[in-house]
Specification:
The complex is a heterodimer. Chain A is α+β, with helices and mostly antiparallel strands. Helix content of chain A is about 35%, strand content about 20%. Chain A has helices spanning about 1-15, 50-60, 105-115, 125-135, 160-165, 170-175, 180, 230-235, 250-255, 280, 285-290, 295-300, 305-310, 340-350, 375-390, 400-410, 430, 450-460, 465-480; strands spanning about 30-35, 65, 70-75, 75-80, 85-90, 135-140, 145-150, 190-200, 200-205, 220-225, 240-245, 260-275, 360-370, 390-400, 415-420, 485-500, 500, 515-519. In chain B, about 75% of the residues lie in helices and about 0% in strands. The chains are: A alpha+beta, B mainly alpha.
Chain lengths: ~525, ~350
């Protein structure tokens, strides 16, 4: 027995001392800690933000949206729009190459756009679903070696920003691959080449031989670390340079470490409570009450949004004034203040006085759990605020994916529901497109306001920037006074950043590592 | 003339061979049952189409996607299509990864097998000395201390233990890596033996903490089981006879007593293997271990029905095979047991 124990000790002794040292990333490598793995590496099939963030390092776009919201050249150096607004012709930069070594030409760009729309390949997700339907994509064609034209069904003011969401890949390589092969072997056109994907573990990229845009680190590793506390531990230990989705309750621990800090940023995701305007809810007392703009306006005063941000999200915030992100919002609108007395007064005026039990009307607020930052507690707080002004609110917290999302997408959530909607910094119209038509997909409230929807006709019939901005502001005033949302906040995002690197987060949940540097 | 297959093996006799044959129809029935239960359970969760469309999807896009994914067909048709593909060993494509579901499973299975085997080794070889020592020193302070630790091990949740290990062993003193995985088995399966064995020491350092978090409960339970089993065996006549023959205590314990004390432990280990291979999700999440448990967990969250179905079938097969081996080992250890 003694011999056995000694033998085991010797073997362990030989193996481990050399391997117990945990190395920080080398100076030429940037390591990111992500909560989830990529959903495949198919550039035409992207339906999550994390996947898009990885893909934009492997694939170039014709133009790309910068952190300030400007739309800047990427693979293309310029573009022009046809007189009828239906054709966008891009001129590619000179000397571009694909990661397979071939020259990247307009033919590759046209192929990339047409491949997304290929019915046989049946892609879904952001490009094939949202982008192509929004711009009414018809076709892409190569006009010359460097000129590619994207043909739309009609003029569209946000087409350029949406085209910037399509990734350019390389025709020769993709024609040789089956759909299955393409899902895990990306041959890109961007600043980084794909090296390997250890499913559920990491994705390794190295700098391309001829990157189309400048970048600093030679290697980028995206590590999948699902548990927030483990991501925090890896960051503090110096094994990763940046973590996304840092948990608000670990902010203090990260900031107290000598190795990393938390970067908080007010995101572009608009968090709101929707007031369902459909007839199916109008038959209930609460559903009938929120049909009235006066009641909806009154409820805006009832909720202390800055207190929710401070106490439940661990980040100060400015309350939203409407549907559009701050940099594009109406310049003269002020967020509704928290004033329960005004709320009570307006509810009295609207014909909903408190009864003998102190209740004005009863209503249900539905929400999904686990999708947004501290969502359950935020919803419970909102219910309490509404209770305080006499609106007896039944909080229904539901399973996110199995129950809540089907209700939302079928526009059956309500009469009040809590949700977040992704926004952008580059155009107010992108944010407003949630309500681009009474029957648009994200108009979950079934809001039919004529003053709002006639604004779209004005905007779609002009190219005059002044008229467009004037109309946007008019629509935003309508939304502020009579809109179907209880305005909350732009969801804050938390990133943990190692002290060894310089890296700044963006507001729009996109992650760029191109400008990151070693300190 | 060819000899029957069982005659070529010491372990596999005629009875065992026919016993295995008898288990095949049972296996088919079990697989059918688990696929049906899984299918119904996933369908109760509602239409998964909504998770595969963009945030701003229009009703038309949702309908097109539903049709493309095949969720527009009646449920019984969907299930029959699945079954007919299954008999051809076609598990379908993962809706999320857009790859054959079986490929995704097989890519993550080696990591889970590594974790399972290492945990089982800790569970077995950690519990034996604990259990024997506690039985030999029954009522003494060693027994009391070991059983107190065992009680603790059965009470501490594995996720808490995992986080504490990360905090104190990895972060504070940097003895072991916090999280991650260095492949070994996958490389072996791919024929990259040199790289696999180069990785082995690092693989083991990454395995220690998650395996410990998984195995601590099992060590504790098995130790208690071995203790009680040993106590029963040590009071038997044949043990007294062995001692009276003048055999050393080591031989009495390890050769005579241990063999019979093993029987209940073997049963538990067999069951445990199935539990560990399918039930280490929490530990895989905490330690960022890219295994099957996490893949299935994500697939359920993402309503990736083909992937869940394929995983369930593979896990079921594993459990069935392990149970079969357990039965055979049981019969081998105790000749009184008839198959």
């Amino acid at each position: 027995m003694k011999k056995l124990i000694t033998g085991v000790a010797v073997v362990f002794g030989l193996i481990f001392p050399s391997t117990f040292t945990i190395a920080a990333p080398p100076d030429d490598t940037f390591v990111v800690g992500l909560p989830t793995d990529t959903i495949g590496l198919e550039p035409a099939q992207i339906s999550s933000r994390h996947t898009a963030n990885i893909m934009k390092h492997i694939f170039g776009q014709l133009y790309s949206v910068s952190e300030t919201g400007s739309i800047d050249p990427n693979l293309a150096e310029s573009y022009k729009i046809s007189d009828d607004g239906k054709e966008y012709t891009f001129t590619l930069k000179e000397g571009l190459t694909c990661h397979d070594g071939e020259a990247l030409t307009a033919e590759d760009a046209a192929y990339s756009f047409n491949r997304v729309a290929d019915e046989d390949l049946a892609f879904t997700g952001n490009s094939a679903g949202f982008v192509y339907k929004s711009i009414d994509f018809k076709e892409a064609r190569a006009d010359s070696e460097r000129e590619v034209t994207i043909v739309l069904g009609g003029p569209n003011h946000i087409a350029l920003g949406l085209i910037a969401e399509v990734y350019v890949h390389c025709k020769d390589s993709y024609e040789k691959m089956s759909k299955d092969e393409a899902a895990s072997n990306p041959i890109g056109s961007g600043p980084y080449e794909f090296v390997k994907w250890d499913k559920g573990s990491q994705i390794v990229l190295k700098k391309a031989a001829n990157p189309p845009i400048p970048t600093n680190f030679e290697n980028v590793i995206w590590r999948v670390i699902p548990e927030a506390s483990t991501r925090t531990a890896e960051l503090i230990a110096g094994n990763v340079d940046m973590i996304t989705n840092a948990s608000p309750d670990q902010v203090e621990a990260i900031d107290a470490s000598s190795t990393a800090k938390v970067a908080k940023v007010q995101g572009t995701r608009r968090m709101y409570v929707g007031f369902h305007q459909g007839p199916e809810f109008a038959v209930t007392p609460g559903g009938a009450a929120i049909q009235k703009p006066e009641v909806r306006r009154a409820l805006q005063y009832a909720v202390n949004v800055p207190a929710i941000c401070e106490n439940l999200l661990n980040a100060p915030c400015t309350r939203m004034t409407g549907i559009v992100n701050p940099n594009n919002a109406h310049p003269n609108l002020e967020p509704y203040p928290y004033d329960p007395e005004i709320a009570e007064y307006l509810l009295d005026q609207a014909g909903y006085p408190r009864d003998a039990n102190g209740v004005r009307f009863e209503i249900t607020l539905q929400a999904g759990e686990g999708r947004y930052l501290n969502d359950k507690n935020v919803v419970l707080a909102i219910c309490q605020y509404l209770d305080d002004v006499g609106v007896k609110t039944n909080c229904e917290i539901l399973d996110w994916s199995a129950v809540y999302i089907p209700l939302i997408k079928e526009k059956k959530a309500g009469p009040m529901y809590f949700i977040g909607s992704g926004g952008a910094t580059w155009s107010p119209l992108y944010d407003m497109a949630d309500l681009s038509a009474p029957d648009s997909g994200p108009n979950y409230t079934k809001w039919m306001n004529e003053e709002w929807f006639k604004g779209w006709k004005v905007i779609n019939n002009t190219n005059d920037e002044y008229i467009i901005r004037r109309e946007i502001d008019r629509m935003l005033e309508v939304f502020y006074n009579e809109g179907p949302w209880l305005h909350l906040y732009f969801q804050p995002d938390f990133y943990g950043v190692s002290n060894r690197v310089n890296w700044n987060p963006r507001r729009d949940e996109k992650v760029d590592l191109f400008n990151a540097t070693l300190k | 003339m060819l000899a029957p297959i069982w005659s070529q093996h010491h372990f596999l006799n005629k009875k065992m061979f026919f016993y295995i044959l008898r288990r095949i129809p049972q296996t088919v029935l079990v697989i059918f049952g688990v696929t049906l239960v899984t299918f119904i359970a996933l369908q109760i969760g509602g239409d998964p189409t909504y998770l595969f469309v963009s945030e701003r999807a229009s009703p038309e896009e949702i309908e097109e996607t539903r049709k493309m994914l095949g969720f527009d067909k009646p449920l019984h048709i969907q299930y029959l299509i699945y079954l007919s593909n299954l008999v051809q060993l076609d598990f379908g494509d993962s809706l999320y990864y857009r790859q054959p579901a079986l490929t995704v499973i097989l890519e993550t299975l080696p990591a889970t097998i590594e974790l399972t085997i290492f945990s089982m080794l800790i569970a077995i070889f950690g519990s034996i000395p604990f259990g024997i020592l506690a039985a030999i020193y029954r009522g003494k302070w060693i027994d009391g201390s070991l059983m107190a630790i065992a009680m603790l091990g059965q009470s501490i949740p594995s996720f808490w233990l995992g986080i504490m290990c990360i905090l104190y062993i990895s972060l504070n003193v940097s003895w072991l890596p916090i999280s991650g995985h260095v492949p070994f088995l996958m490389l072996i399966f791919q024929g990259e033996f040199i790289q696999a064995f180069k990785n082995l020491p690092t693989t083991i350092t990454y395995l220690i903490l998650p395996s410990f978090a998984v195995a601590f409960y099992s060590v504790s339970r098995n130790a208690r089981l071995i203790r009680s089993s040993m106590l029963e065996v040590l009071s038997q006549d044949y043990v007294r006879t062995a001692r009276s023959k003048g055999l050393s205590e080591y031989i009495v314990i390890m050769k005579h007593a241990m063999r019979n004390a093993w029987l209940p432990v073997v049963t538990i280990i067999g069951l445990e293997f199935g539990f560990v291979i399918s039930g280490v999700v929490v530990v895989e999440v905490i330690f960022a271990w890219p295994g099957l448990g996490r893949t299935v967990f994500d697939a359920i969250s993402n309503r990736d029905i083909p992937l869940v179905q394929a995983a369930v079938v593979v896990i079921s097969l594993f459990v069935i095979v392990i149970n079969l081996i357990t039965d055979l080992v049981y019969a081998k250890l105790d000749p009184r047991i008839k198959l």
